[in-house]
C-alpha cells in the first residue's frame, strides 16, 4: 500500500486531472497487465503529461503476495498550476493500493438483473476510452437505484446510443453475431473488452436502447469481475423490458473472457 496525504493543490484532487487502473492480480501475477499499461500510457499522452516509469510500475503487482487481489493505481498530473492551466513542468503523482478480492461467482452461473439509467453520458471524443478520474456521471447514475437485486445500470450517451454499464462494458449477440458499443464519443475502453476484440470476432457498432430487447444474449464484463450474462433488463421505472434464459448460448463469450483472467469456464 502506498497512501500518503494528498496535497490540497494536487490536480487530481482539485480537478480530476488524472487517471486510474484497477488490475486483477493472482498470486502476484497481474492479468491483462500490458493492456492496462497501454491504456494508462495512452491516457497520459492524451492529458499531456509524462506518466510513471514503466519499470517502476512493473514491480508493483508482485507485492500483492498470494491469493486474489485488486491493485488500484491512481496517477495525477501532480501539484500546482494557475487555476485550470497546468504547470509547465508537471511532477505527476502515483498512489497505489491492494485489496483482497473474491468474484461474484453466482452471477457467472445464474446471470444478473440490470436496469436502464436515466442519466446520459456527455459526448466528449477527447476523453473517450480513457479511465480518467472525472467519474461524476457514473456516481450520479449509480445513485439511481438501491435494490440489491439489480447488479448494474446501463448508460446511453446524450444521443441515445448505448455505451456501457456504470463500471462494466457491454456485449450482446444479435443474429448470431457478437457486438459491443463503439466508444469513440465517450465511455471507458475496458482492458478485457480490448483483449476480447483482439481475439474474437466482435463488431463495434452503434445501437439504441429500443433494439436491446431483441438481442439473442446480453453480457456485462470487466477485467476484475469477469463476464456476467444478463437474465433480466428493466427500464428506469422498474418495468421489465426483456428476459433471457441463461443457456449454452451465453457460455462461449463468457468462457473466452474468463480464460483471459484465469477464471473457470462454465458449461450448461
From TrEMBL:
Domain of life: Bacteria
Annotated pathway: Cofactor biosynthesis; tetrahydrofolate biosynthesis; 4-aminobenzoate from chorismate: step 2/2
Catalytic activity annotation: 4-amino-4-deoxychorismate = 4-aminobenzoate + pyruvate + H(+)
Signal sequence, start to end: none
Assigned GO CC terms: cytosol
Enzyme class: lyase
Assigned keywords, A-Z: Folate biosynthesis, Lyase, Pyridoxal phosphate
Cofactor(s), by name: pyridoxal 5'-phosphate
GO BP term (any one): 4-aminobenzoate biosynthetic process
EC number: 4.1.3.38
Molecular function GO terms recorded: 4-amino-4-deoxychorismate lyase activity; pyridoxal phosphate binding
SUPFAM superfamilies membership: D-aminoacid aminotransferase-like PLP-dependent enzymes
Coiled coil: none
Quaternary structure and interacting proteins, as annotated: Homodimer.
Cross-referenced NCBIfam families: pabC_Proteo
Family: Belongs to the class-IV pyridoxal-phosphate-dependent aminotransferase family.
The name this protein goes by in its record: Aminodeoxychorismate lyase
Protein's organism: Modicisalibacter muralis
Amino acid at each position: 500500500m502506498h497512501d500518503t496525504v494528498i496535497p490540497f493543490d494536487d490536480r487530481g484532487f482539485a480537478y480530476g486531472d488524472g487517471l486510474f487502473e484497477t488490475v486483477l492480480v493472482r498470486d502476484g501475477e497481474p492479468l491483462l497487465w500490458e493492456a492496462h499499461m497501454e491504456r494508462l500510457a495512452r491516457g497520459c499522452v492524451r492529458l499531456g503529461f509524462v506518466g510513471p516509469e514503466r519499470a517502476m510500475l512493473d514491480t508493483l503487482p508482485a507485492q500483492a503476495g498470494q491469493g486474489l487481489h485488486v491493485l488500484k493505481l491512481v496517477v495525477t498530473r501532480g501539484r500546482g498550476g494557475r487555476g485550470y492551466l497546468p504547470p509547465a513542468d508537471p511532477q505527476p503523482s502515483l498512489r497505489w493500493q491492494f485489496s483482497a478480492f473474491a468474484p461474484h461467482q453466482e452471477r457467472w452461473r445464474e446471470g444478473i438483473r440490470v436496469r436502464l439509467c436515466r442519466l446520459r453520458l456527455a459526448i466528449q471524443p477527447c476523453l473517450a476510452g480513457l479511465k480518467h478520474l472525472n467519474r461524476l456521471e457514473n456516481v450520479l447514475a449509480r445513485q439511481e437505484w438501491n435494490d440489491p437485486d439489480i447488479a448494474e445500470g446501463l448508460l446511453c450517451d446524450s444521443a441515445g446510443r448505448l455505451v456501457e454499464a456504470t463500471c462494466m462494458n457491454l456485449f450482446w449477440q444479435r443474429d448470431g453475431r457478437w457486438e459491443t458499443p463503439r466508444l469513440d464519443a465517450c465511455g471507458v475502453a475496458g482492458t478485457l473488452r480490448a483483449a476480447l476484440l483482439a481475439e474474437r470476432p466482435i463488431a463495434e457498432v452503434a445501437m439504441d436502447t429500443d433494439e436491446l430487447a431483441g438481442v439473442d444474449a446480453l453480457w456485462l464484463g470487466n477485467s476484475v469481475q469477469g463476464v456476467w450474462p444478463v437474465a433480466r433488463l428493466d427500464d428506469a421505472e422498474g418495468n421489465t423490458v426483456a428476459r433471457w434464459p441463461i443457456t449454452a448460448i451465453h457460455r462461449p463469450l463468457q468462457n473466452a473472457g474468463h480464460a483471459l483472467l484465469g477464471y473457470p469456464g462454465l458449461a450448461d
